[in-house]
C-alpha cells in the first residue's frame, strides 16, 4: 500500500497527525512496513509521538501486517489477518478485532495466523480473538494482549509482556528466558501445558504486577471492545486469583540481584 506514504506525508515531514481509512485484502502484504521505513528515515529510532499516524483498515490482511511498525504509527484492523502479524514490531501500536457485525464469539475463533509478534522489540498489540501457533516467539519488548493462543506460545521470549485471557496450547514458554506472561487460567491447566525448564508459575501478588496487568486489560477493553476484558474487569478481585504469572528463573534472579544492589546502595 504505497498510498499510505502519500497520505502520511504531513506526519512524516512535520509530525502532524493524520487519519487514514482504507480497505484491505489478503493479497496486501507487509502493510505498514515501507511506511515505517519512511518514518525512520526522518525520525530515526525515536519515531513519532504516539498515534501521529492513525490507520484504520477494513477486511482481511495478508502476511506480515504491521511488520517492524515504527513508533507513532497505529494500525487498527477490523477483520482478520494472516501469519506473521506484527513481526519485529518496533514501537508502533497494533489493534485487531473482528467485524462489528459478526455474530460469533471472538474468544472462540482464530483472528490471526501463526508466528504473530515474532521478534518484536517494542510497542503494543491488542487482539480480540485467538492466535494460531507460535505466538510471541522471541518477543523482546512488546506488550501484547490476546484471548487465546495455539501451541508453542512465548517460545524463546526474552522481554516484554504477554497477557493471555484464554487457553494456551501445548509446549507453552519453551526456552523463555525473559519478560513476563500473565495467563488467565481458571481451569488450572497451564502447568500441564507448559515447558517448565526455564520458568516458574507464580501467583500475582506484587502491586506493580497487578497494576500493570489491569492497565493492559483496560487498554484491551477500550481498543477492541472485548467482552472477555469487560467480564474480567467487572469481577476483578475474583478473576485476578485465576491468573498465573509466568516468570523466567534467570530473569527473576537478575531482578532480585538488581533490587539487592539498589537497597545496599541506598
Describe the structure.
The chain has 266 residues and is of the alpha/beta class. The chain has a domain at 132-266: Glutamate synthase, alpha subunit, C-terminal domain (Pectate Lyase C-like, 3 Solenoid). The chain has eight helices and twelve strands. It has helices at residues 3-7, 9-14, 33-43, 190-193, 207-224, 227-234, 236-240, 249-265, and strands spanning 18-24, 53-61, 73-81, 90-97, 110-112, 122-127, 130-131, 140-146, 158-164, 178-184, 199-202, 243-248. It has a ten-stranded mixed beta sheet. A two-stranded parallel sheet has the order 5-7. The longest helix has 18 residues, at 207-224. The chain is globular and about 50 Å long. 47% of the residues are buried. The model has no long low-confidence stretch (mean pLDDT 96).
Which terms would index this structure?
ten-stranded mixed β-sheet; two-stranded parallel ribbon; about 30% strand; globular; about 270 residues; Pectate Lyase C-like; alpha/beta
Instruction: Tell me the β content.
Output: 25-35%
Low-confidence sequence ranges: none
What do we call the CATH homologous superfamily of the domain at 132-266? Answer: Glutamate synthase, alpha subunit, C-terminal domain
SSE topology string? HHEHEEEEEEEEEHEHHHEH
Number of strands: 12
Strand order of the largest sheet: 1-2-3-4-6-8-9-10-12-11
The appropriate CATH architecture of the domain at 132-266 is 3 Solenoid
Strand-pairing-aware structural class: alpha/beta
Q: CATH class of the domain at 132-266, anyone?
A: Mainly Beta
CATH topology of the domain at 132-266: Pectate Lyase C-like
| Helix percent band | 25-40%
Strand count, sense and barrel status of the largest sheet are:
10 strands, mixed
- The rounded distance between the terminal residues' Cα atoms is 53 Å
Overall pLDDT metric: 96
Amino acid at each position: 500500500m504505497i498510498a499510505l506514504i502519500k497520505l502520511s506525508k504531513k506526519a512524516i515531514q512535520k509530525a502532524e497527525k493524520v487519519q487514514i481509512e482504507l480497505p484491505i485484502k489478503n493479497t496486501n502484504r507487509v502493510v505498514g512496513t515501507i511506511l515505517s521505513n519512511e518514518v525512520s528515515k526522518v525520525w530515526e529510532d525515536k519515531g513519532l509521538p504516539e498515534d501521529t499516524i492513525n490507520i484504520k483498515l477494513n477486511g482481511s490482511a495478508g502476511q506480515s501486517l504491521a511488520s517492524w511498525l515504527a513508533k507513532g504509527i497505529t494500525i487498527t484492523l477490523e477483520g482478520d489477518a494472516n501469519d506473521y502479524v506484527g513481526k519485529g514490531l518496533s514501537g508502533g501500536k497494533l489493534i485487531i478485532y473482528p467485524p462489528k457485525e459478526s455474530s460469533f464469539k471472538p474468544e472462540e475463533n482464530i483472528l490471526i495466523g501463526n508466528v504473530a509478534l515474532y521478534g518484536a522489540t517494542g510497542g503494543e498489540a491488542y487482539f480480540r480473538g485467538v492466535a494460531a501457533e507460535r505466538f510471541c516467539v522471541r518477543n523482546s519488548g512488546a506488550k501484547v494482549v490476546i484471548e487465546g493462543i495455539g501451541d508453542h506460545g512465548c517460545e524463546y521470549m526474552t522481554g516484554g509482556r504477554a497477557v493471555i485471557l484464554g487457553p494456551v496450547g501445548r509446549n507453552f514458554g519453551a526456552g523463555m528466558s525473559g519478560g513476563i506472561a500473565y495467563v488467565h487460567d481458571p481451569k488450572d491447566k497451564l502447568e500441564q501445558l507448559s515447558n517448565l525448564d526455564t520458568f516458574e508459575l507464580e501467583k500475582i501478588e506484587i502491586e506493580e504486577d497487578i497494576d500493570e496487568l489491569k492497565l493492559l486489560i483496560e487498554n484491551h477493553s477500550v481498543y477492541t471492545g472485548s467482552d472477555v476484558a469487560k467480564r474480567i474487569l467487572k469481577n476483578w478481585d475474583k478473576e485476578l486469583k485465576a491468573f498465573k504469572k509466568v516468570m523466567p528463573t534467570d530473569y527473576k534472579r537478575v531482578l532480585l540481584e538488581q533490587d539487592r544492589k539498589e537497597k545496599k546502595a541506598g
